[in-house]
Write a structure and sequence with these properties.
Elements lengths: L1 H26 L11 E4 L4 E2 L4 E5 L2 E4 L4 E3 L13 E6 L3 E6 L2 E6 L5 E5 L4 E7 L2 E6 L4 E5 L4 E6 L15 E2 L3 E5 L4 E6 L5 E6 L11 E5 L2 E5 L3 E5 L4 E5 L2 E6 L3 E6 L3 E6 L4 E6 L5 E6 L3 E5 L3 E5 L6 E5 L8 E4 L2 E4 L2 E4 L2
Parallel strand pairs: 1-29
Antiparallel strand pairs: 2-32, 3-4, 4-5, 6-7, 7-8, 8-9, 10-11, 11-12, 12-13, 14-15, 15-16, 16-17, 18-19, 19-20, 20-21, 22-23, 23-24, 24-25, 26-27, 27-28, 28-29, 30-31, 31-32
Length: about 350
C-alpha cells in the first residue's frame, strides 16, 4: 500500500516537473513589443501582387501562380511551367531553374533556351556568354553558351543544410567570383579558366553558405550567417555576428543581426554604431532615403543612414508569409510596400 502511494506521489511529482519545464520553456520566448508611445502611427500596403510568394532566392521570388518578381521589383507577364523557379536575370534573359536544367527566356521574343545540367542549379549569374552556376551538390561550374559546354568545374564538400538566401556569383572585369555552400569564395580567371584564389569566409560545417556577395569599386563584401568579410587589394577584414542580412554602400555597411541589432560599420568593418531593438526578429531589409527593416510581429522600423534616429510604425498584421526585398519595394505574401 505504501509502495503504491509512493509510486503515485513520484508520478505526480514527475509530471509536475515536466509541466513546469514545458510551460516554462514556452514562456521564455520573448517578442518585440515597443512601447505604445514609441509607435508613430501605422502604415498600409501600397499594392497587391498577382499571387502569393512561393519561393525566394537572393535575386528574385517565384509566385504560386508561376509568375515571378525580379530584383528590380518587376513582375513580367510570363507564367513559368510547373516545377520551375526563377533565379536571376540579365539585360537579355530571365534565368530559370527547371529540374536539372537552366532555362534562358529571351526578354524580347520569349523564346526559351534549355541547358541540361548534371545537378540542380540553386544560384546563377550570367555575363555575355558565360554562366556561373552553383549546384545543390555544392559543385560550381562556368558554362559557355557559345560553346554549349562547361569550361570550368570544381567539386566541393557537400553542404546539405544551408540558408535559402544563397548569394549569386559575381562577374568582375577579368575574374568570376563564385560563392559556395560551405562558406568559401572561388575566384576564377576569365581568360584562362583557372583557379586564382580560394577565400574562406567562414569554416563552419552547417548552414554556412555564402548569403551575401557584392563589389563596389575596389571593395568586395561577402558574408555567411556567422561572419562578414571585406576584401580590399591589401587586406581582408572580418566581423563576426549572427547575421540575418546586410546592406553595403560605398563607405558603410549595415549588418542586421538575429538578436535584433542593426550594426553600422565602415567599409573596413570597423564598428561605428549599433542600435538594438530588444527581441526583434527582422524579416526583410531595404533602403531608400533611409534604411527600412520589417519586424515579424508587424512593424516597420526606419533608421537614418548614420543610425542615430529611428521610427517605428505598425504594419497591417504580423509577418507570417515569405518576404522578398526588391528595388524600391518589399513584398509580403501577395502584397507590397513602396520604399521611398
Amino acid at each position: 500500500m505504501k509502495n503504491n502511494v509512493l509510486k503515485q506521489w513520484l508520478k505526480i511529482t514527475f509530471l509536475g516537473v515536466i509541466g513546469i519545464l514545458i510551460f516554462g520553456g514556452c514562456g521564455s520566448k520573448y517578442y518585440f513589443k515597443p512601447e505604445q508611445q514609441s509607435i508613430e502611427g501605422s502604415i498600409e500596403y501600397d499594392g497587391i501582387a498577382p499571387s502569393w510568394i512561393g519561393s525566394v532566392v537572393r535575386d528574385g521570388a517565384t509566385l504560386l501562380n508561376g509568375r515571378f518578381i525580379t530584383k528590380h521589383a518587376e513582375i513580367p507577364n510570363i507564367r513559368l511551367k510547373a516545377g520551375s523557379r526563377y533565379l536571376n536575370e540579365t539585360e537579355e534573359y530571365y534565368i530559370v531553374q527547371r529540374g536539372k536544367a537552366l532555362i534562358l527566356i529571351n526578354k524580347d521574343d520569349r523564346k526559351e533556351t534549355n541547358i541540361p545540367l548534371e545537378s540542380i542549379p540553386v544560384s546563377v549569374s550570367m555575363d555575355k556568354n558565360l554562366i556561373a552556376i552553383i549546384f545543390d551538390t555544392n559543385t560550381i561550374a562556368i558554362y559557355d553558351l557559345n560553346r554549349m559546354q562547361v569550361v570550368y568545374r570544381q567539386d566541393n564538400v557537400p553542404a546539405p543544410a544551408n540558408n535559402t538566401l544563397i548569394a549569386s556569383p559575381y562577374f568582375l572585369s577579368d575574374i568570376v567570383v563564385i560563392p559556395t555552400l560551405d562558406g568559401k569564395l572561388i575566384i576564377v580567371d576569365k581568360a584562362s579558366m583557372r583557379l586564382v584564389r580560394n577565400i574562406v569566409v567562414n569554416g563552419d560545417k552547417f548552414f554556412n553558405n555564402v548569403i551575401y556577395l557584392e563589389a563596389i569599386g575596389n571593395r568586395m563584401v561577402s558574408a555567411t550567417p556567422k561572419r562578414i568579410i571585406s576584401v580590399s587589394p591589401n587586406i581582408i577584414n572580418t566581423f563576426d555576428a549572427n547575421i540575418k542580412d546586410i546592406l553595403f554602400f560605398e563607405d558603410r555597411i549595415f549588418i542586421f543581426s538575429n538578436e535584433g541589432e542593426i550594426i553600422l560599420t565602415d567599409k573596413d568593418l570597423n564598428e561605428i554604431r549599433r542600435k538594438k531593438f530588444p527581441f526583434a526578429h527582422f524579416s526583410a531589409t531595404n533602403h531608400g532615403k533611409d534604411i527600412v527593416v520589417l519586424e515579424t510581429q508587424g512593424y516597420m522600423i526606419t533608421v537614418d543612414d548614420s543610425l542615430q534616429t529611428s521610427k517605428i510604425q505598425k504594419l497591417p498584421q504580423a509577418i507570417t508569409e515569405p518576404t522578398f526585398s526588391a528595388s524600391g519595394k518589399i513584398f509580403i505574401g501577395d502584397k507590397f510596400f513602396n520604399i521611398q
